[in-house]
Amino acid sequence: MKCPFCTCDETRVIDSRLGKEGNNIRRRRECVTCERRFTTYERVEEILPMVVKKDGRREPFDRSKITAGIRRACEKRPIPIETIEKLVDRLEIQLQESSEREIQAAVIGEDVMEALHELDEIAYVRFASVYRQFKDINEFMQELTDILGSQSQVLPPLKK
Length: 160
What we know:
Blueprint: E1 11-18, E2 24-31, E3 37-43, E4 50-52, E5 58-60, H1 63-73, H2 81-98, E6 102-104, H3 105-119, H4 121-131, H5 137-148
Parallel strand pairs: 4-6
Antiparallel strand pairs: 1-2, 2-3, 4-5
Helix pairs in contact: 1-2, 1-4, 3-4
């Protein structure tokens, strides 16, 4: 393991502990050269499907992209980072268990929106506004009225 401070190849493990969920190992390391300490995490690499984008491109599943999108949607909301991580874990496990070799990006996006809808409606609307790329305010308002359900009579469509 390379030291993130001096890039030396020699480090030693000082402490190892099982992660909170039991699916990873947290290791405390020390660089032999600069003697600085840092933490690494080790977990089993799972086989995940390729993601098929709207334009037909295929790319490997990237957990960090989903996490970043959900974090942006949840900014300034009372949602702990642990909850976001658990949500992403659940989505990733779902993909692993599906045993599909490829999955449409749209399916992943819909799964994220469904999970956010249950978690926090404001985060859901934020994510949906970017994901669905609303063309105008009326499409956005329609999404809001769908969320509000019975209160949809209260919000008339906006005129251009």
